[in-house]
Here is the input.
Amino acid sequence: MKLRRLTSILAAILAGAILLLCGCADVGEHSETFYAMDTVMTITAYGKNAEAGTSAAREEILEKDKLWSVTNENSTLYALNHGASAADADTLALISYALDISEKTGGALDPTVYPILTAWGFTTDENRVPDDEELSRLLENVGYERVTVSENEVRLPEGMMLDLGAVAKGRASDLAAELLRENGVSSAIINLGGNVYALGKKPDGSDWRIGIKDPESEKSVGVLSLSDRAVVTSGSYERCFTAPDGTVYGHIIDPKTGYPVNNELLSATMIAADGTLCDALSTAMFVMGSEAAESYWRENGGFDMILITKNHELILTEGVEKNFALLEKNYTVSILKKAIQ
Ligand code: AMP
Ligand code: MG
Here is the structure.
């Protein structure tokens, strides 16, 4: 009992500190920073309902983190990975969505890659390089097509495990945006550890300006001006380690080889109204590489993208050409157009 009280007092102090840091007492702006889904998240909303909307969105994300954390022993995902099969509708829907994109991307996205991630130490931050034999053994338990989702349960064959790290933050951003809107907020920026959702326009009526990170420095290569769009980037640089032989290994795995992706891309950024789609595709397009990503975009559409290559090339789809301003002049820009010229 005493411990619980102490915890709630500490929580209250922390909440006060957050409010002070934001300096958002009466200007119709409310910002909250919190830790969830393994990252620092900030939601900033404007207008008279800003505080109610932000709090509702934060609570929702914390709830979903409890369901979708792969390491929290009390989460729904942990239970599924350890023999359970029943899950709530939101979890079933997210798994089903991830499996659908897995199929569409020929397995570039594959939520069953978890045993491989564990072998590389990405789930514990105790990184190591597994040998080929270990990887081929573990790859026997990777394969999205063997997972089935029905109305109220997930069937996961023995030895297989799911990880929703490639899609959870995107879905969280969509849910946060929905709750903000339901609470009457029409202007907000949701930043879930770089997974951004720009809701409406800025309070002055102009577009939000979102920097696209230079994977090789702390700067932005350019800025996107837009509204009501998610902007989600995947890249090895976000989480990686250097092996004793100097090789750098990133946290995005090619499910076909079991090795961290090492192609010509430094990052893949997706832009669309649907944050879950952006999150799923940013991971998948990063795995697929620029040529396959271009074909995927041509065949499927419904999103824009910015690919950054190791040759300092920025490949933009035509839908965001007018929204993008280049800042780093050492990058060349090429535009992908649907109609063949
Ligand atoms: P993201 O930052 O959205 O690209 O997601 C990367 C995270 O998704 C990693 O940290 C892993 O948890 C997981 N992951 C890595 N590779 C894959 C993959 N090929 N398919 C699905 N999830 C993956
Ligand atoms: Mg992703």
Remarks:
- The two ends are 71 Å apart (CA to CA).
- The longest helix spans residues 2-22.
- The chain is about 35% helix and 25% strand.
- The pocket of magnesium ion (ligand 2) is lined by residues 166, 234, 279-280, 282-283 (CB under 6 Å).
